[in-house]
């Protein structure tokens, strides 16, 4: 049974108590539930999840009789100050508790849960010690992420030699980890954003089974000598540490490594140490200061599949990558590689994704033409002039060429498999967009936001599979809207800040349309009547359409759930038709100064959750509607 955003009455809770065969219950954001007495009779219940609830320990105590429980999740229960009532559930295998006010005293009884295998205590504002875990000799996984546990409080972990997975990420008070030498079964360790130092981690040599280690954002980590001897280590995260070239030599001996992140290691200039790492699959060098000559050892990592050189500001030439025949993803964004320096990437025959954003010295994509496996190209904010190389293999499915100010045309681009094209903020013209869309009949998503040189959209009428069209700040007219209306498969349409649009009645043929945004256009009340036939519409934004005085025609949209009318000139009589939108959950009337009376409307809409009348002339408005289930933001104009 899953209940989400459901007001729980006494009748419903009585019904729950009679569902004795229930084995799994999930309750998410359901107001009205203060006690779990209704679940105490469910003797077959094995899994319980309470998310975003106002439950207290007193209310939780009723499940202490549910001896069949094996898995409990209590997330974001901010009134919870203790979980000692769970101490009697000796059959519990998994316990996950996060974001609450539980203190050290509130977890004392966890020591009784001798069969517990997984324990997650995340984001406890007042937790400083984990002493109760001493008795949990079957515990294999312990997650203490984002807590105030201290070095003294962690000392008890020395008696948990059976633990295989331990997370102490963002535990800012942790610096002394001498207890770690006792965790000889450890396979996973996360100490990211703690105050551990390289010297403190030397005891990791006792953890010979360690496979994954995270010490990201630990400023005290200045060298990686602590990994020496960890022959099983396959995943190493040194992101944002103070490691220097001299401190990387021990990594050479970790030949089992398949993942290595040195992202934002600002003192790193040389990666000679990667040469022996022949099993490496994923390498992140983003934000380091490596130079052309020092990345040559990468050619020996022939199994490499993912490589990020993002924002390596001293890189101009990556031709050494030609040996990486298994490479699938390459990120060169923000580097200064040139046309010549990137030319040999054409030999990376397995490449599926490449990011060239902000590579301002690359002017063409001819080097991509031979890449028959290429699927995704990101080339935002470039000075590219010729993009025809994108269509060389005919395999590309997703392309983003946003904010390329020098690109007015895409030439004779052939991309028969292209599904997603973003030209946002580019200088492409009417003829340029017409030329490219003629050859992209498979296109499903098109982003033309802020393409101010485009004045008409006749070309989109030739796209039989288009499901999403995003247009913003363009000089298109009602005539272009009529062309858009021919795309019968459209599900999401955005035409924002197109001030010359006054009539969208032609959109009445878009029967699959689910989401429509016409905000800050010049549509009139008569110009939206046709929308009443878009029967599947669930979300409609007409905010900032100052010529709108009434929207009663929208009452035909029985599936509408979200409607934005802020900063329009609609009046009380102009919204009365919305009473028929029985599924409406969100109604925004912000700064609609002609609105004075909304009581009748709000009483007709049983599903209304958010009702914003801020800046209207509504008087004597209540902040809360009904019995506290729905919220209304009100402003009284005096």
UniProtKB/TrEMBL annotation:
Residues 426-597 form the F-box/LRR-repeat protein 15-like leucin rich repeat domain. This is F-box/LRR-repeat protein 15-like leucin rich repeat domain-containing protein. It holds the Pfam family DUF7885. Gene3D superfamilies: Ribonuclease Inhibitor. Keywords: Leucine-rich repeat, Repeat.
